Amino acid sequence: NKFVYFFGGNKTEGKNSMKELLGGKGANLAEMANLGIPVPPGFTITTEVCVQYLKDKDYPKGLLEQVDAAIVKLEEVVGKKFGDNENPLLVSVRSGARVSMPGMMDTVLNLGLNDASVLGLAKNTENPRFAYDSYRRFLTMFGDVVLGIEHDKFEHALSEKKHALGVKLDNELGVNALKELVEQFKLIIEHETGKQFPQDARTQLLMSIDAVFQSWNNQRAITYRKLNNIPMEWGTAVNVQSMVYGNMGETSGTGVAFTRDPATGHKRFYGEYLINAQGEDVVAGIRTPRPISTLKEAMPIAFKQLEEIYIKLENHFRDMQDIEFTIEQGTLYMLQTRNGKRTAAAAIKIAADMVAEGLIDKKTAILRIEPNQIDKLLHPMIDPQATLQVVATGLPASPGAAVGKVVFTAEHAEQMAESGAKVILVRTETSPEDIGGMNAAEGILTVRGGMTSHAAVVARGMGKPCVAGCGEISIDIKKGVFSAGSCSIHEGDYISIDGSTGHVIVGKVPLITPEVSGELKTVLKWADEVRTLGVRTNADTPYDASVAREFGAEGIGLCRTEHMFFGEERIPVVREMIMAETEAARRSALVKLLPMQREDFAGIFHAMEGYPVTIRLLDPPLHEFLPNHEEALEKLMELESKDAPESEINKVKKVMERIEFLKEINPMLGFRGCRLGVVYPEIYEMQVQAIIEAACELTKEGMTIVPEIMIPLISHVKELQIVKQQVVKVASAVMADKDVKINYKIGTMIELPRAALTADKIALEADFFSFGTNDLTQTTFGFSRDDAAKFLPAYIEKSILEHDPFAVLDQSGVGELIKIGIDKGRSTKSDLKIGICGEHGGEPSSVIFGHKVGLNYVSCSPFRVPVARMAAAHAAI
Ligand code: ADP
Ligand code: MG
Ligand code: MG
Which ligand 1 atom is the nearest neighbour of the CA of 279? Predict the structure, then answer.
């Protein structure tokens, strides 16, 4: 069995397509070597070994022999010897899963150094400072990653040393200081572990390989995988790679770059580097790096080579690349390439541009855009009209604006967010431990670090606004305050950040929704060309309807009429209707509601002209429109204490009686939906009259109106028969009266299991079905949506459910009922139009499911419409 794959020195065994086995990093290192790009040689231990090791707590037989053989090969290629005291071969031990998990897993650099070989390295390179700098770095990383000693312990000693010598930066420390640090670090290791630092190179190597495999199961890696839906069972590969040194002086350096701007997508080489530095210095934000454009003057030859390589890589992978490089005494080496993370805006621009450049086709472009990313683009930015009190400006690290209360720790961010507060996480710099807090925050602000710092990369990935490297502010965590200029901002105070400009603003700023960009329109048009699933919107007002039209909705899938019953002038009339004790009294109240409803429907029809509009007749239990008991009681007491007239007091008493009468133990399963229509037909009659009158009116004006009347909460076909008869009767009367013919339809929601199970019978009475997946989820699970928050988190924690079924459709349970409903429905009416409405209509995996089971359309909130269009396109490709 082959566990180890070599790369570099014309002996490369892997390639790009072997990501599952070699991890992304290993596969791409091999691919770069295959392309003739200078890569320090090394070898990759496969992910299979990791999986087996984590399961058996032991290595597969033959692994160590293969590792030893690979080391020998590496020694031959590089011309140095591992564990040698004269000319030591040093290596890095790097993790690398199938998909990149930036900063999540651990890396050890300069492995192979010890008290003897550091002397050899110093002598050989004639650069003792470099040798001891490498050694102290190795001790830190080995101590932290492999031995589990808090990074801070080393960091603290380093800071003290700098302080004592009056220098600010690591690279200002001289060789003597570094030697002293090396001794101190070894003592820290001995003190913390009770054992001496292992001098033997092979021991160091095996311990590090162990640690990398084990890091697959560290908390932050687990959290990252959960957030990104990466399977726990993949495992990571380990890359052992010969070192190249960016810390050899002024002609050396290290950097990271993107082949296009990862924030905007613009086609320009973009990145940062540090002179005389090693690997992690750039991302960790230890010094503020320089923009890549200045490398052209600093090291023109290396820069030119870098340019050629990045273009070659982009053309080869046909995607924007995120690269790592190191320059050792003027010679360039590539250390990593991968498809770069990007903001939603950049993803769209890059996809559209690459089609125009002929690099990819339209379908590939569509598949490059995560449907959920689009949502982020439609999200808020600061109202340009607003006057802003900008107190500091940092780097615009991840676009979008956020408003929230200041918190200084990730933990606190999570707690506050849990209690419903919106927070901005303000940190000196972030580390992978902060991931949970970053996820909970609206936005992130850091003092240190560049555009490729941890905070920036993670925020862009999450689509959260981030301002990084804002050196103008300083944080005093103990006092719970940060200062910006003359301003002090306390924990809990509101600030706003603008990740597109880098502005930090005091207080809450008004946010607005941005325009849809040209590129977004283009890719959405391509999505429309390939998708077969229709996308409608849920809208209750003409405004929402017109927003949704802008976003490409092809009609309304759900117009909830009850929302029209609220509003100041209406609620008294609605209450009058509910208070009515006789049909006559109810009708006289309904007469007052009629013109209001008609106006509503006319507005919506107008906004959706030419497209179908599905209007659901009244659905919620009537008590929702009455004041609650406490409110009424308060009112009563107030009136009584004021000695108000008897008649007024009686009125309130009546209301309270009615509240008592309408009170239900379980309103979700109570007197609602079509049950209202069965018992009080006059309510639905009024609504149908308003719908058809509005339709007639607009039809007379020359518009094409397509009303679809939808009856909610049907469980038995006879309910539908009865209600339908009333609808037809009223509609016919109105059309005769207005002398207009409206091509209206009558359909039903399928939101109760019984409806799905008897859909063949129900279909005979219905022109269309719409799966109300919110209620269908409630009734299938028997989970009350309003009470599920008490136990659902535990269900997800214990992996009983993977997702909240109210957000992501439960395909195997609720989805099964949907399939049954579709099959049965179409068995008796083959051309039955079927859609879904509810939260799931805009959730990509649910949309894709809808496509597979043969829905005609999904319906979702206006802002999710572009998401659904893209998801539907993904489903069709
Ligand atoms: P991550 O996945 O967190 O980026 P990496 O394994 O890529 O971790 O390594 C961390 C840093 O160390 C990167 O900047 C990388 O370029 C650098 N690095 C890794 N291996 C070597 C090496 N053999 N020589 C020089 N630098 C290296
Ligand atoms: Mg890396
Ligand atoms: Mg419902």
Answer: 14
The residue among 324, 309, 315 whose CA lies nearest residue 257 is: 324
Which ligand minimizes its atom distance to the CA of 138? 1
Residue span of the structural domain in which 210 resides = 1-113+201-243
Are 559 and 692 members of one domain? Answer: yes
The parts of the chain modelled with pLDDT lower than 50 are none
How far is the C-alpha of 84 from the C-alpha of 778, rounded, in Å? 68
Mutation choice for ligand 1 from 224, 256, 336, CB with most ligand atoms inside 8 A: 336
Ligand nearest 104 Cα, by number? 1
Residue with tokens 């598949």: 367
pLDDT at 378: 78
Give the residue whose CA is nearest to atom 22 of ligand 1.
Answer: 243
pLDDT at 102: 63
Tens of pLDDT along 810-856? 999 999 999 999 999 999 999 999 999 977 999 999 999 999 999 99
Question: Are both 37 and 120 inside the same structural domain?
Answer: no
Concatenated DSSP letters for 510-537? Answer: -EEPPPPPHHHHHHHHHHHHH--SEEEE
3-class SS shares of the chain: helix, strand, coil, % to 5: 50, 20, 35
Tokens of 149: 């000693």
DSSP 8-state symbol, 561: G
CA distance 205 to 93: 8
| Res 103: pLDDT | 54
Nearest C-alpha to atom 23 of ligand 1 is from which residue?
243
Domain annotation covers residue 371: no
Q: What is the pLDDT of residue 104?
A: 60
Q: Which ligand is nearest to the CA of 112?
A: 1
Atom of ligand 1 nearest to the CA of 242: 23
Q: Are residues 469 and 598 in the same domain?
A: no
CA–CA separation, 683 and 590 (whole Å) = 7
Q: Judge whether 596 lies within some domain.
A: yes
Residue type, 334: M
Q: What residues are neighbours of ligand 3 (ion), with CB under 5 Å?
A: 751, 772, 775
CA 70/CA 82 separation, integer angstroms: 11
- The structure tokens 């615009």 sit at 396
> Ligand 1 pocket: which residues have CB below 6 Å?
40, 92, 94, 103, 107, 109, 241, 243-244, 279-280, 324, 326, 335-336
Atom of ligand 1 nearest to the CA of 40: 23
Q: Is 772 helix (H, G, I), strand (E, B) or coil?
A: strand
Tokens of 515: 């325009």
Residues 444 and 507 in one domain: yes
**Of 758, 779, 777, 747, the residue nearest 825 (C-alpha):** 758
804 within some domain: yes
Any idea which residues carry the catalytic annotation? 454, 837
CA atoms of 188 and 181, how far apart (whole Å): 10
Do 746 and 820 belong together in one domain? Answer: yes
541 located within any domain: yes
**Which among 437, 435, 424, 410 is positioned nearest to 470, based on CA atoms?**
424
Of 378, 379, 478, 395, the residue nearest 444 (C-alpha): 395
CA–CA distance, 595 with 739 (Å, rounded to integer): 19
